[in-house]
Sequence to fold (429 residues):
Amino acid sequence: MVADLFEKALNRKTPLSPYQDFAHGYFSFPILEGEIGPEMYFRGKKVIVWSINNYLGLANHPEVRKTDAEAAAQWGLAYPMGSRVMTGTTKYHYELEHQLAEFVGKKAAYLLNYGYMGMLSIIDAMLDRHDVVVIDYESHACIYDGTRLHMGKRFTYEHNNMESLEKQLQRATEVANRTGGGILVVTEGVFGMSGDLGKLDEIVKLKEKYNFRLLVDDAHGFGTMGPTGAGTPEHFGVQDGVDLYFATFAKSMAGIGAFVASNEPKIIRHLAYNMRSQFFAKSLPMPMVIGAMKRLELLKTKPELREKLWTIVNALQGGLKKLGFDLGNTNSPVTPVFMHGDAYEAAHIILDLRENYNIFCSGVIYPAVPKGVLLYRLIPTAAHELEHVEKTLQAFKEVREKLEKGYYKVSDPMELLRKYNIQPEQTYW
Fold:
């Protein structure tokens, strides 16, 4: 008997399905209103926002807003129409690619419409069934989904564990020797959830023993790491050891799009002709291209933005550590705050922070972190001020005291919503 596909889908248990009705409209799919910045409005109340990856504060920078508006007025949002390979290429696309490649110390770069689909397609275009891919266990979903398209062998090494990576490289080498394939190692420059850095210097050193190419996803490192903001490879001084460098515009650049760069222009051309998610998609619209140029200009010419970011990062992370909070191994602006409790306590803390302390941050629970672990991720930006940090430190101090006293214990999740008189937002779906 053939099952009804909709009924089957609705009955399937996924990691988030137990929470979707309770969480929707408040904990998930929340609506933040007002101009993007350190303070916005949530359900009519002004809150300090620590959940937006606007690292350099460019989202509402006056020069960025002016350039975006002028580009939209001049070109509209449709131009150029078509994919890059057909009718979607302009001299401005090439110029932005040249500027990006030069900034990150590479010979060539190619624009991507979206980071997620771009990374997925890079992995797909680089590998055939004879090749082997080796990735860090805590890699972003786009990396995992890229490897799922791969028809050959794939291995995962323990997070940032070089002994584990070497073991997987040995296995990968055995396979590649049999198949005649190559090996691609993929890691992140800055891991977006934990904030720790991929050990790029140690991975590059392994090239002395093993024959592989290295792809680095530096979405959170581009613009924030390194002496000039050129990313995590610059931070470690191993730019030449990274074969494919990938970054997005969605974080430091406060825009849409991404790019991949390499010291081998022929590989960039290979990707341009073989990344299916880009080849068969409309080109990046002109206002986003022109806007990205302005953002890159500010990133290069205004180091004070990065300096301000790190002032806020050091104040926030230093203050939390002084209060005894566990921030894991972060060495980047990403600020994870670890506590212990169950999923309902996690939700209760979020409610208390938003409703009583006017603090908006993101909470993460199992299966993204182990059972019993609560993770609150804060994203400092150059737009924040020290007074935002002080208010947040005081709030977290009081919240931890409540957690230790059992204040947040609750057996029924709906009881939480009733307690705070919260009506989940209604959407058309």
